Amino acid sequence: MADIRFSMPFSIGRVIFNSLTFLVFLGIVLLLYFRLGHRGQNWMLIVASYVFYGWWDYRFLGLLLFTTFFDYFCALWIEGQPNPAKRRFLLASSMTVNLTVLCVFKYFNFFAESLQHSFALLGITLSFPMLHVVLPVGISFYTFLSMSYTIDVYRGDLQATHNPTDFMLYVAFFPHLVAGPIVRASILLPQCQQPRKIIPEQVANGLWLILMGYVKKVVVADRLAQVVNWGFSRGSPPFADANSWLVIYAFAFQIYSDFSGYTDIARGISKLMGFELVVNFRAPYLVANPADFWRNWHISLSTWLRDYLYIPLGGNRKGRMRTYCNLMVTMLLGGLWHGAGAAYVLWGLYHGSLLACQRAWHDFVGPRLPSAPRDRAIVTMTKNALLVLIFFHLTCLGWLLFRAGSLPAGVDQSRFVLNYLATMIVPPDGINPIARAIVVLGAVSLFFQWKFDAMNRFSQWRVSWQVVAVLAALCAIAALGVFEGAQFIYFQF
């Protein structure tokens, strides 16, 4: 198999939210921001965002610029084109370019290897060239962001902007650039176009979101990462019994705290400058069914998939079987969005199956059940708690598939997952000591989810509670924080 290499062994470093370099960078940005007028702020933020992205890998600044301006002009041409066929051609051009960029950098090798294996099963030997390219950080996020803009203009849901700097800022705004949330143009673009007014309540909420995000990342996620990395760093499960669940629990709380922590910091920084990003997480581990999970987990991606894929495929408007197929296709592509690998595809299919099963239950079983008398509050609470517990474990099984996508090279993913599943049903002789740390950190994670609404209304708390919360967060960071600048999980997507 031929190798085609485009990578270069050079990088000028990385600026991530949980690094001292980023805090210095943010301080400079805010200092300049408050000294400039609206247009000056926009230009400064564009420069700062490209510096932020270029600090990761300057070679892909051109790719970001190309995607931005291609969609900017496509949207203008779509809006000014009365011919429906030409409008469709322009939209198709935008989608083709964005998806081609994404496929070349992220999926080419995966599809090439999959085709080779498929034909090998038929006794046919094929050889495809393999691309050795560095995956541009955040490419899945900013291509979806930019592509949704042209789709909205084509649908007539949004007017194309005629100011390229506004659109550049919308795409490259550094708080959301590399790991979301995937903010629609209808929400963020007007904030780029109009002068921003910053109020004290917004600043207070922003500072608290930043602080809460750091607690989630450096205290909860990075501490749990030590358990998770140990549990997945070998070719076999670390335990021979149900203690294996502990590692999966640790990953479940790690990935929530890591990704929602990033989102909190991104939203908090944006609030300091008068921007409002969308909420990306609520309480995904306190829900009782798969539909509610996706209403609470990575909300900006799940709504993107719903509005730009599931509904255009027909949604639930074309019969039951078509609905189940649409759910499976949407979640399969959602899994593939996360990574080019069989584990991510299976994770997407797994969640698609859960959604299809829930839909089938409501279609076939629910209408036939007899009407039950109204339960007492304590019975209802018990039933709901049991359903939440069951679905949390179903979610954890999915996380086992997801995490298997990042196993060390040379480890058979399918064998590893099957071995893990086999240990989970073996009764343990005792509970491993790491359970105490996982329970404590998991409880912190669940507390943030349980009090989600309150956490977003910090400015409305009593002053005494604000002081206690801030001191508790600072003490937790100082005493338990991991200050090694660990990368956020979703940067790899």
Tell me the structural class.
Answer: mainly alpha
The helix fraction, in percent, is 55-70%
Question: What's the domain count?
Answer: 2
What about the largest sheet? Answer: 2 strands, parallel
Beta-strand proportion: under 5%
Q: Oligomeric status of the shown chains?
A: single chain
Widest sheet: strand ordering: 1-2
The coarse overall form would be globular
Kindly describe this structure.
There is one protein chain. The protein is mostly helical. It has 2 domains: 3-196, no CATH class; 201-363 and 378-492, no CATH class. The chain is built from 19 helices and 2 strands. A two-stranded parallel sheet has the order 1-2. Helix 14 runs antiparallel to helix 15. The protein is globular, with a radius of gyration of 24 Å. It starts with a strand and ends in a 13-residue tail after the last helix.
What's the structural blueprint in terms of helices and strands?
Elements: E1 3-5, H1 20-33, H2 38-57, H3 61-79, H4 84-121, E2 130-132, H5 139-155, H6 164-172, H7 174-177, H8 185-193, H9 200-231, H10 244-272, H11 290-296, H12 299-310, H13 320-338, H14 342-365, H15 377-404, H16 413-424, H17 434-450, H18 452-455, H19 463-480
Helix pairs in contact: 2-6, 3-4, 3-5, 3-6, 4-5, 6-8, 9-10, 9-17, 9-19, 10-15, 10-17, 12-13, 13-14, 14-15
Keywords:
two-stranded parallel sheet, 493 residues, disordered N terminus, mainly alpha
